[in-house]
Amino acid sequence: MKLQTLFQVTAVASALALAGCGGDIEISPTVNDNSVVNNGSGGSSGGDTTADNLCATNNGVQGAFDGRDCEYNLEFASRNIEITEDITFAELPDGGVHVFDGALLIGEDCDTTTSCTINQDGPVMTVEPGATLAFTSGEAIIRVARGAKLNAIGTFDKPVTFTSANAFTRFDVVGNGPRFADWGGIIINGEGITNQCTDAQRDAGTCNVASEGIVSYYGGNDNADDSGSMKYAKIWYAGSGPRAGGDGDDLNSLTLNAVGSGSSYEFIHIHQGYDDGIEFFGGAADVKRVVFTDTQDDSMDIDAGWQGNAQFLYIKHGTVNVDGTDVYMGNGGFEADGEKNSGAEYSQAPTSRPNIANVTVVTTDGLSTRDNDPSTAMKFDDNFQGQLYNFLLVKTDVATNDTRCILFTGDGELGVTDGDLNFFNSAMACVAENEFTSADLFANGTSRQAWFDNSGVNARLGGNATVFGTDGFATDMSSSDITVTANDLSALGNSFFEAVDYIGAVSSTDTSSEWYQWVETALAAAEQD
């Protein structure tokens, strides 16, 4: 059958390309039945438009339906085809999957210094509850242009899934299973404010920042921009290592390029991405209830003036099995950078200054398989400023590899010395807290320990503290080792934040909530990997 033949070719090519990574990832997150039912309605993309073909259509070209799965070849979508009409991917029965060979480019990319104009009423890509989209190539991405939207809204019982085709044994002919960098991830380009553009460029409508990884353009002057939203969604096995531009020119699991506050991202599970989990380049998009497991680089990478809010983030570094060997995943829980540029000509675009609350970061003492960098809970750089509430940072492993809970690099100390970077009602349960002793001071004369302690508002508990309940992941506020009280967040005066009585991302007394179960399910899936 054509679908099987296609994947014999693409899977072998993918395996050869990834031979340097090697190894088996021993998890299949969804259906693993090799059987295929052909009801006669299959054929090449664009061939079958009968009533029982459940595949999406783009500009008259329809995916090929084999009775279970939808195949979309390069005639349907690729790096050379931009989708300019609304498109919907529905849940397929019997565990069916929408499978793509190439990139899904939603909307027309535009560099406004040329003759094009951004279509402010661009196409909307809708992914319905229970739908699974799988990709066969590291070059396959979802790219949403300025003016277009991606709405991927699942339900708790029927989440939306974006994953590797190798997560399904009927497609994984080579048999290596799914792994990081199997596909490129999701890039959303907004018209929000980023300090990668000058004030003059924004005023003239010529703010066009080239995105990392695969070039497309983002940026503008509207931090209320709406590029669509995601809820109850899984993004697994995405991203890439450095590409043509070298270090930093990467594909993330989810890239939010100057996406504004009209968009939101809630109940997301990002697993085993090969670069960052979510990377923000400016904008003001909000995120809530996100789990990051085994992301290779940074889980939350903040840059270029992000002004959004975040609450309930669970980050866990761990290992994956490659060639029978467990290798470490994870650099920074957070890489928090403030600005790409500063000065008078960037006055409209301040440094990153989010409010973030209720975060758990669990690190290891491992050096990452990608770049041999250490596992660190928080890295601050480039004048990052932020108000951080109810954080719980955990490192129980003996720090033989110089892995620390908090690391300052470059001009990361500027936020501290200017009084604009602070923890509140937070705890470090870390064998190694930061890279300096109490005798080492910031430029304003404050020691690192005194800065974190914040006059007793926060606490350093040590690596042997008991902070989790019997489930091993939710904060046990009844533990005698936890000596701080939670901030209920009411003083923030921000309706985004929900009132809490615990530090960290999830409470051990909240086992019936969807959020507790979302975290529990995500961690269990990662543990199998």
Automatic annotation (TrEMBL):
Signal is among the record's keywords: yes
Keywords: Signal
Residues annotated as signal peptide: 1-19
Superkingdom of the organism of origin: Bacteria
Entry protein name: Uncharacterized protein
Organism annotation: Pseudidiomarina maritima
